[in-house]
Amino acid sequence: MIPLDEAYIVLVEDDVDARLVALELLRNAGAGYCYARKAADSAVLLAKNLRRVDLFLVDINMPVKSGYQFLEEIRSDDKLHDAKIVAVSAGTLSDAVERAKESGFDGFISKPLNPNQFATQVQSILNGETIWE
User: Half-sphere exposure of residue 76, counting CA atoms within 13 Å on the CB side?
Assistant: First the structure.
């Protein structure tokens, strides 16, 4: 179990508004080490330079490198492979959730983010629970 205020979280989201909303929700809930990047490649570079990463929150549908490609890269990295990786997507269809499960994501949070639930969802994931909603 990692408390939200001690967790190192990296958000990978290409949409600036969605990125700012997620960061604000996390920080308002007490997240102390929360970082965001708009592209997968820059998120990987950032993560490799952090002390550790406990959780990646990753938009599945990004230009250049998808969330699925990002997942593969992180899972094959010696330093980062143990971090939890949660898909964040506007698609809540069961197909999207099922594909995320089959691909090896540790959870799925649908967009738009629910301001009343997001921090609780993230803390649940940090506690070792799986979220598929």
Answer: 6
CB 95 within 8 A of CB 128: no
pTM higher than 0.90: yes
Each residue's pLDDT tens digit, 71-127: 999 999 999 999 999 999 986 677 889 999 999 999 999 999 999 999 999 999 999
10: β partners: 35, 56
Does any domain span residue 49? yes
Confirm whether 132 is domain-assigned: no
- Which among 9, 58, 56 has a CA at the least distance from the CA of 29? 9
Question: What token pair was written down for 96?
Answer: 């999207």
Residue 133 lies in a domain: no
Distance CA 86, CA 130 (A): 9
| CA–CA separation, 18 and 47 (whole Å) | 20
